Amino acid sequence: MAHCWATSKLVVRSVSLLCSLVLIAPFLLAGSRPDPGVVLELDRGEYTVRARDLRTGVVGPPLRVALGSPAEPTPQGTYTLREVVRNPDWDPGPTARAGGARYEPPSPDGTLGVAKIPFMGSYSLHGGARPMLLGKPITLGCLRSADAELLELLDWLHERHALGRERPTPSGERRQHFTRPVRLVLQ
Question: Are 83 and 117 a contacting pair, CB within 8 Å?
Fold first, then answer.
């Protein structure tokens, strides 16, 4: 009789443990899902980049931009973003150099403005745009925004815990790596 009592007590404990796991498992699994990250999507018709946190659905501030010219169009595709460079230097490519552009040391007042977010080779989403240039296809392929709007977007990304700590470089630039997945979609 004592053996049956011990066996049934063990069965009850096992069933109880199994029920607990069944009830808790969804919460445990929810915490283990990968972070879908943040997406920055370009609306070419509106010359606007829209930000959205895919985990929470929170929408970020819109970023008005200038796009690449017909001769030097902004590329299409989806790009994984790795870092933000504040006070960026500018080493112009051959087309800009042919027009007289020269290297500019790191500065928030340079051609690239307060920051750049590289996305493909020498292409970046960066500041430095005068308001009258926004909404026009005039760049050499980069997305150019007003500094104040770019800083708003960077603040929003920081609030989403998508940006790491700023790390100064010997040149004077300050770099921040993304701590969450961030994609730029250019369609």
Answer: yes
Domain count, the chain: 2
pLDDT in tens, 136-159: 999 999 999 999 999 999 999 999
Nearest-CA neighbor of 83 among 159, 9, 177, 1?
Answer: 177
Instruction: Write out the H or E segment, with its range, that includes residue 58.
Output: none
Neighbours of 42 (CB within 10 A): 21
Distance CA 122, CA 99 (A): 17
For residue 57, the enclosing domain spans 38-186
Same domain, 111 and 150: yes
Instruction: Output the CA angle 155-156-158, nearest 5 degrees.
Output: 65
Torsion of CA 13, 18, 23, 28, to 10 degrees: 120
